[in-house]
Amino acid sequence: MSPLFDLSGRSIVITGATGALGRTAAITLAGLGAKLTLAAGSKDDLDDVGAKIKERGGACRLIARRPDTLADSEAIAAEALDTYGRIDGLLVASGTNIPKMIGEMAPEEWEQVMDANVRGSWLMCKSAGKPMIAQGRGGKVVLVSSVRGRLGTPRGYSAYCPSKSAVDGLTRALATEWGQHRITVNAIGPTVFRSKLTAWMFDDDPKASASRVQSLPRIPLGRLGEPEDLMGIIVYLLAPASDFCTGQVIYVDGGYTAG
């Protein structure tokens, strides 16, 4: 492994570690020698991810919490510090969506999406950023945005789109705030990739087929994404190779935003 992409021994925190993106990232980063602190709401699912990592000889610590409150985010960061003595990187892969037209969406549902996607990202950055700054060795933060942070859609995303736009703003704000501490802050912006929320689009039923027929002409590479498609950019953004890259929202979307 080139030193540019060497993650061996790096302490990396992942929230949403049982979702499609977080789970795949955890297994990928563990395989590259990172020491992981994995956080998610479901203990059973978290134990399953942890078992797979340990079967492969990887190092991970599990904490069954989501970054819903400051106490939660601080507990997640403390778990990493207590276990490995430092935090070198953070991947906030936790989030949600409730697709509804604005007329049918309750304010409480809008707040749920904003809390999961924006508040959770902000809280984890606050709690992990403090020890990163104190360590004085720099660090890496990767947030998860979406093409929907840049583009609208008629599918009822009046909560999701603003939440991801806010993640984009948080990325740029913290990149400028933390640059003096050599902490890079970037976001990835996927299009549709296979997950629990989007699994229906990969089915063979008429509704899924119709949705793909509508979506695929907008994607130059001609297919929907897989979690594995996002791993290269995540490794890059957590590795020394990206030391001069910060404040960027990098679209990993098969070319969707190019057209």
Q: Give the SSE order as H and E letters.
A: EHEHEHEHEHEHHE
Roughly what percent helix?
40-55%
- Give the end-to-end Cα distance, rounded to a whole number of Å: 35 Å
Instruction: Supply the CATH superfamily name of the largest domain.
Output: NAD(P)-binding Rossmann-like Domain
Q: Quickly name the level 1 CATH class of the largest domain.
A: Alpha Beta
Strand sequence of the main sheet, in spatial order? Answer: 3-2-1-4-5-6-7
Poorly predicted parts: none
CATH structural fold name of the largest domain: Rossmann fold
CATH architecture of the largest domain: 3-Layer(aba) Sandwich
Q: Give the count of helical stretches.
A: 7
What is the number of strand segments?
Answer: 7
Strand content: 5-15%
State the domain count: 2
Assign the structural class, choosing from mainly alpha, mainly beta, alpha/beta, alpha+beta, or little secondary structure. alpha/beta
Provide keyphrases for this structure.
259 residues; 41% helix; Rossmann fold; alpha/beta; 7 strands
Secondary-structure topology with pairs:
Layout: E1 11-15, H1 20-31, E2 35-39, H2 43-55, E3 59-63, H3 70-84, E4 89-92, H4 107-135, E5 139-144, H5 160-178, E6 183-190, H6 206-215, H7 231-238, E7 249-252
Description of the structure:
With 259 residues, the chain is of the alpha/beta class. The protein folds into two domains: 3-190 and 227-251, Rossmann fold (3-Layer(aba) Sandwich), CATH 3.40.50.720; 196-224, no CATH class. Helices cover 41% and strands 14% of the residues. The protein has helices at residues 20-31, 43-55, 70-84, 107-135, 160-178, 206-215, 231-238; strands at residues 11-15, 35-39, 59-63, 89-92, 139-144, 183-190, 249-252. The protein has a seven-stranded parallel β-sheet with strand order 3-2-1-4-5-6-7, with helices on both faces. Strand 4 (89-92), helix 4 and strand 5 form a beta-alpha-beta unit.
